[in-house]
Amino acid sequence: MHLPPFFEIGSFEFAKHTVLIFLSVILIVGFFMWAIRKQALVPSKGQYLGEVGYGFVRNSLGRDIIGEKEFRPWLPLLFSFFFFILVNNLFGSIPVLQLPTLSHPGSAYVLAIIAYVAWVGVGVKRHGLGHFMAKMTMPPDVPKVLYVFLIPIEFISNLIIRPVTHALRVFATMFAGHMAIMVAASLLGFLITDVGGIGGILGGAGALFLGIFIYFLEILIQVLQAYIFTLLFAVYVDGALQEGH
């Protein structure tokens, strides 16, 4: 599933997923630079695709979630999150490449850390450390006596578990989907080559159908996870910016 590294520099491993991460950056930058090269009033197909992609992030993940007054400074990060995760996820469905780089936990947690620092940082900057911590740990309209129990629960939930699950969600789905396709492919090979006969052929046909179904299901999940990760980040930013109780 994950090939040995090409070479190592100390604890840093330069492996296939590292190459794919660099490739994703080149592809994303290259495509959008190509799409906006002319900026014609009547857009070409490439410019139209670029504008649709940008408009989707701008409107659905920026303006609609964070709000008209606040979303513009966050567009570059929202845009980068969505397309970086999307392309790296889709690598898992491209023959030969066949590796979603976010099936490595380290890649997913780096993105979650960037998101965490961004929304916590803007929350502290906007409200001050004390007020921000109160927003995160003291729900409004709750009897004060319950804060003895709620403050530690809310602190763990919002400031510890939230970034962990933010990364774990995309990592786990990419890892599980990739494993499922590998199992279906291995089952197909086993039934045809080792079992053989009519039973092996029929079983292999079933395994092939299962593999195709999982393949297209994984493509859907790859797109959804890019959307969900970016959507959650926008929700966290909006929560950090809003006035508390």
From TrEMBL:
Transmembrane regions: 14-36, 74-94, 106-124, 145-164, 170-191, 198-217
Main location: membrane
Protein topology in the membrane: Multi-pass membrane protein
Entries under Pfam families matching the protein: ATP-synt_A (PF00119)
Cellular component terms per the entry's GO annotation: plasma membrane; proton-transporting ATP synthase complex
Cell compartment(s), UniProt: Cell membrane; Membrane
UniProt cross-references to SUPFAM superfamilies, sorted A to Z: F1F0 ATP synthase subunit A
GO molecular function, one term: proton-transporting ATP synthase activity, rotational mechanism
Top-level taxon: Bacteria
InterPro entries xrefs: ATP_synth_F0_asu, ATP_synth_F0_asu_bact/mt, F0_ATP_A_sf
Keyword annotations from UniProtKB, A to Z: ATP synthesis, Cell membrane, CF(0), Hydrogen ion transport, Ion transport, Membrane, Transmembrane, Transmembrane helix, Transport
PANTHER family for the chain: ATP SYNTHASE SUBUNIT A
UniProt-listed NCBIfam families: ATP_synt_6_or_A
Role: Key component of the proton channel; it plays a direct role in the translocation of protons across the membrane.
Family statement: Belongs to the ATPase A chain family.
Full protein name: ATP synthase subunit a
Organism whose genome encodes this protein: Kocuria subflava
